Amino acid sequence: MKNSITTNIFALLMLVLCTTIVQGQAKKGSVLIKNGTVLTITDGTLENTDVLVKDGKIDRIGKNLKAPRGAEEVDATGLFVMPGIIDAHSHIAGSSINEGTSQVTAEVSMEDVVDPLDVSIYRALAGGVTSIHLMHGSANVIGGQNETLKLRWGSTNPNDLRFEGAPRTIKFALGENPTRGGRSRGIQPQSRMGVEAMLRNTFNDAIKYRDAWNEYRANKNSRKVAPEYSLRMETMVDILEGEVLVHCHSYRADEIYMLMKVFADFGIEKLTFQHANEAYKVAPELAEFGASASVFADWWAYKLEVYYSTAYNAAILTKNGVTTSINSDSGELIRHLFHEAAKTQKYGDLSDNEALALITLNPAKQLGINDRVGSLEKGKDADIAIFDKHPLSIYAVPQMTFVDGVKYFDINNDAADQRIYIDPESTIQDVQIFYAEDQHRCMEGADVINFYDLLNKQ
Amino acid sequence: MNKLRKSLFRLLLILPMLGIAMVANGQSDPTGKSEATRTYAITNATIVQAPGKIMEEGTIVIKDGLITAIGKNVSIPSNAEVIDGTDMYLYPGFIDGMSNTAADRPEAMERPDNLFTPDPPNDYAGITPEHHVAGQIDVEENSIDGMRKVGFAISHTVPYGRMLPGSGALLLLRDVDHADDMILSEDVSMFTQFSGAPGAYPGNTLGIMAKFRTLYRNAEYSKKHADMYAENPAGISRPTRDRVSEAFYPVVTNQKPIFYDASSSLEARRAMRLQKELGFSLVLGNLQEGWDLADEIKASGTKVFMSLDLPKEPKASKEDDKSEEMAKLEERRMEFYKKYVSQYSELKNAGVKFGFSTIDTRGNQVKDNLMTIIENGLSEDDALAALTTNPADLLGISEMVGTLDQGKIGNVIVSTGPYFEKDSQLKYVFVDGDKHEYEIKDNKKKSGDTENSESTSEGSSSIVGTWSYSFTTPQGEQTGSMIIKKDGDFYTGTLTSDDGTPDNDMVNISFVNDALDFEFSVDAGGQSIDVVVNGTVTENEYEAEATVTAFNISFPLLATKEAPEK
Question: What ipTM score was computed for the predicted complex, to two decimals?
Answer without folding.
Answer: 0.90
